Amino acid sequence: MKISYEARIGILAAITLVILVIGYKFLKGNNLFDNHKTYYSIYDNVAQLDPSSPVFTRGIKIGTVLKVQLAEDNPNKVKVTLDIKGNIKIPQSAKAVLVSTGLLGGKAIDLRFDHHCSEDCIPNKGIINSEVESILSSMLPKAEVDDYIGAIGNKIKSSLDSSVNKGQLNNISNDLSGTLHNLHMLSLKLNELIAANTRQINTTVTSLATLSQSLSNNAKSIDQSLKNFESISTQIKNADAGKLIESSKATITELQKTSQEATKTLKNIDELVGQIQNGKGSLSKLMNDPTLYKNLELSSQSLEKLLNDLKENPSRYVHFSVFPNKK
What H or E segment, with its residue span, contains residue 244? Predict the structure, then answer.
């Protein structure tokens, strides 16, 4: 019988699919030809346990974690599905312990039981009791931890015994009592100091609060001042140094000229004052000659009398008639 081309392609595709499934399971550590059983375990928290995490017993990998999900009947619990390969009979006293495989947080399930059972075993799709172990307990066996704790306790005990034998413990106790007494006295002094300066402290705190409020109220003004200062600084920085120097030189020259002219003016005034003091010139005679001064005073008095008489007797000086005389 001759197989058609389409049938051969279908058979090849089916074989390829089977090989892919077997290879995928093999890469995940599952052998399709091994005997597998499924078990469940319930935890409060699995601490980031991932599917495909290994399941060990006494250091031997016997399966993997198939699924991690919330329990259907209680969302506060986590249901972990375990795939155990081989014909392993698990007793009812077994525990699925969640352990850490390293300091970086890797997780695994350690299946612990004392003996294999011949009857009353946990059936397929049964529930195994759960337990969570700390990272320290996972990294160090309990016996080693007990040994370390015992060694540390013995070391402390021997040190204390040695101190007691040498009389050092009493000295340490006395020193500690003295230190505590000093701390107590320091606390009392500190309380007295605070009580004596309460008013000053309150005043200081109030002043600081006022200063803070003032700064807050004038924040915009301060910010504007800083911006203005920055603008001035930028203008000075960007200014042409040569032009500034030339402008400064011109200003200094003008100031020198003004100073020279002021000096000349003061010198002329000084000479004029000297001439007046030495009796030179009309102004000097007016100020220093008493005769001239008296004559001016008499003339002023005469003029005043004349004006008064003119005001009192105008007819003496002015003749006026409504009807002029006919000639």
Answer: helix 241-278
Alpha-carbon gap, residue 196 to 204, rounded angstroms = 14
Q: How far out from the chain centre does Cα 216 lie?
A: 20
Residue type present at position 94? A
Residue type, 262: A
Determine the distance from the C-alpha atom of residue 160 to the mean position of all C-alpha atoms in its chain, rounded to a whole number.
47
Tell me the three state secondary structure of residue 146. helix
Yes or no: say if 30 and 55 are a contact pair by the CB < 8 Å rule: no
Give me the count of residues in the chain: 327
Burial readout 177-187 (b: 16 or more C-beta within 10 A, e: otherwise): eeeeeeeeeee
Specify the pTM. 0.39
CA nearest neighbour of 137 among 128, 129, 149, 127: 149
Strands (E), the chain: 36-43, 54-57, 60-70, 78-85, 95-100, 107-112, 129-132
Phi, psi of 67 (to 5 degrees): -150, 145
Token couple for 309: 């008489």
If you ran DSSP here, which 8-state letter would residue 240 be given?
A: -
Nearest CA to 95 out of 165, 138, 44, 43 is that of 43
pLDDT by 10-residue block (mean), the chain, 327 residues: 78 89 70 78 92 92 93 93 90 93 82 86 93 70 69 77 62 80 86 81 83 82 82 71 72 86 84 70 64 75 80 70 53
- How far is 306 from 110, CA to CA, in rounded Å? 145
